[in-house]
Amino acid sequence: MVVEVTVTDTTRTRAIELDARDPLARFRERFVIDDAENIYLDGNSLGRLPKATRAQLRQAIDAWGRDLVQGWERWIDLPNQAGDVIAGLVGAAPGEVVVSDSTSVNLFKLASAALDARPGRRTIVLDANDFPTDRYILDGLAASRGLRVLGLETSLDDGVDLEHVRTALDEDVALVCLSHVAYRSGAVADLPGITAAAHSVGALTLWDLCHSAGAVPVGLGDARADLAVGCTYKHLNAGPGAPAYLYVRRDLQPLLRQPIQGWFGQREQFAMGPGYQPYDDINRFLVGTPPVLAAYAVLEGARLVSEAGIAAISEKSRALTTFGVDLVDRWLAPHGFRLASPRDPTRRGAHLTLHHPQAWQFCQAMRKAGVIADYRTPERIRLGMPSLYTRFVDVLDALGRLRRIAEQGDHLQHSTASARIT
Ligand SMILES: *Cc1c(COP(=O)(O)O)cnc(C)c1O
Q: 94 vs 81, 114, 227, CA distance in Å?
């Protein structure tokens, strides 16, 4: 049992009032919550399990046992069905998104396709502080093709800046690949502005939406974004290892070729013909047999987010993070914590990041005190606040426990040596 810190009554009253007025409060009971002793602020790493998904997966497993190979009549279209629901969450049209593979693999497929579509151009622009898999994959592609990677030295806390991107753009740039919401700080990049700037020099854009889909409006269609990828196990709550999705703007679909010529991209797949003749639509970006059980989880997770609506979700996450920033300023700044996310709520995704030189020790002490957050190098704690199941009192209690740890020096009992998974 964890004893709550006594916070000023007005602050607790305010959190309770905000929860009482929250139009999304009713969504919390749509999730399995078996860990009530803990405050879960890590839904930006692995979202909670929706009850509808548990039921759907049980049915899908029964169908497997009963229908066996005949189940494919229904299963074959799941990646498109789930993709269409996700399309609605990221401002794309039906037929522009499909569920497949992992984010890493989709990034490779779409980046390769984009580079092939810009022959003669020799530069890939990326964020030197982006998530590692994105950088590694683009570095690998560049090395195998003799291209140059221009890694922008962006601010760890404020993310990518449009003017900074402009300085890197010229007619040699084939591809600009960036995260929409930065994994470390939650900073939101100017997706329409950067897309337009890239287009003005004839480059293509590839957006990583891992921390944005299901958390903030993305507006791919309005921005005429070219390509995007993202995972489903964070804000779409599809579960560990659930497949990712990819987006290709409709008019580009027949023009791009992806490098993995698998049979699921092939027209008349079961004709088993001699040569590869891919579909003209989004299906040409598929590779092989989809993971059906996990695809059901993607469908249900995306449906739940769609039911709540991105506008309401984003409005609440701004309110949650703003409430959190106020507590950080009052309670934690005196203990050496610094906000490592943008102060402007319109530039924040659904997590708040705190810098402290002993962040890793604090993170371990928080887990012991029942607050699940994650550590990100260098010296940062990420506090995820997904709107569908995070309450204002959760933010209050989590930051209250962190303050108590700092006051008592509890974190000093924890090792400074790092762990395999943080
Ligand atoms: C979580 C995340 C990934 C994950 O990629 P996987 O292929 O699913 O392991 C990729 N990029 C970003 C920005 C992420 O936040």
A: 9, 22, 15
